């Protein structure tokens, strides 16, 4: 199985500041025939359903604020929140869908 | 917008069988992949299995020997059966839709906590 490792496990960021979460996979998630990275980011808030934020490493889903961005390729990826808002407090997960079984990172808890 | 809602027993005794159902509303089950994912307390997410609307399935090898997943499109439901449960199966169980079969989960239920204990 592909192992996904996130860092840090938790972080505290001031309102309006930048938050950065890293995700490393145990093997490349880049499919060379289409040049796509099979990496997604999810947001999980207490009492709410989990939300898909970013697919293909850097494609924001419809309705996701543009302060959220994804970057990286191969084995190293980053989720960046450019200006933290109070409603961004959540746990964030990366997930690979390059091969089955699909696997997730352990999660990164973002606090203010 | 499609909505998913899990339902289950809450508490299951060790060695017994866990049965869960996910009810889909606000959209068709056709042409989509329907998944189960679980989250042990304080831990990350683990993909369990999917069932396509036509009944085709795929399981996580770590659980495959104990699992059955099925779909009933007439009821807009899909279900999971996990046999011979242990305390390690205690988790929040979530159902999710994969729209195109990529492995991207674009709609999720809120989850249901299943505790395995006597």
Keywords:
heterodimer; A: 112 residues; mainly beta; seven-stranded mixed β-sheet; four-stranded antiparallel β-sheet; 13 strands; 0% helix; 50% strand; B: 118 residues; 11 strands; 52% strand; globular
How would you describe this protein?
The complex is a heterodimer of chains A (112) and B (118). Chain A has strands at residues 4-7, 10-12, 19-25, 30-31, 36-37, 39-44, 51-55, 59-60, 68-73, 76-81, 90-96, 103-104, 108-111. With 112 residues, chain A is an all-beta fold. In chain A, strands 2, 6, 7, 8, 11, 12 and 13 form a 7-stranded mixed sheet that branches. In chain A, a hairpin with a 3-residue loop joins strand 7 and strand 8 (59-60). Chain A starts with a strand and ends with a strand. In chain A, 38% of the residues are buried. The model of chain A has no long low-confidence stretch (mean pLDDT 97). In chain B, strands 2, 4, 5, 6, 9, 10 and 11 form a 7-stranded mixed sheet that branches. Chain B is an all-beta fold. Chains A and B meet through strand 7 and strand 12 of A and strand 10 of B.
Write the layout of secondary structure elements.
The complex is a heterodimer of chains A (112) and B (118).
Chain A: E1 4-7, E2 10-12, E3 19-25, E4 30-31, E5 36-37, E6 39-44, E7 51-55, E8 59-60, E9 68-73, E10 76-81, E11 90-96, E12 103-104, E13 108-111
Parallel strand pairs in A: 2-13
Antiparallel strand pairs in A: 1-3, 3-10, 4-5, 6-7, 6-11, 7-8, 9-10, 11-12, 11-13
Chain B: E1 3-7, E2 11-12, E3 18-25, E4 33-39, E5 46-52, E6 57-59, E7 67-72, E8 77-82, E9 91-98, E10 105-108, E11 112-116
Parallel strand pairs in B: 2-11
Antiparallel strand pairs in B: 1-3, 3-8, 4-5, 4-9, 5-6, 7-8, 9-10, 9-11
How much strand content do the residues of chain B show?
Answer: over 45%
Q: Mean pLDDT of chain A, as a whole number?
A: 97
- Provide a count of the helices of chain B: 0
Q: What global shape of chain B is seen? A: globular
Gross geometry of chain A: globular
Question: What order do the SSEs of chain A take from the amino end to the carboxyl end, as H and E?
Answer: EEEEEEEEEEEEE
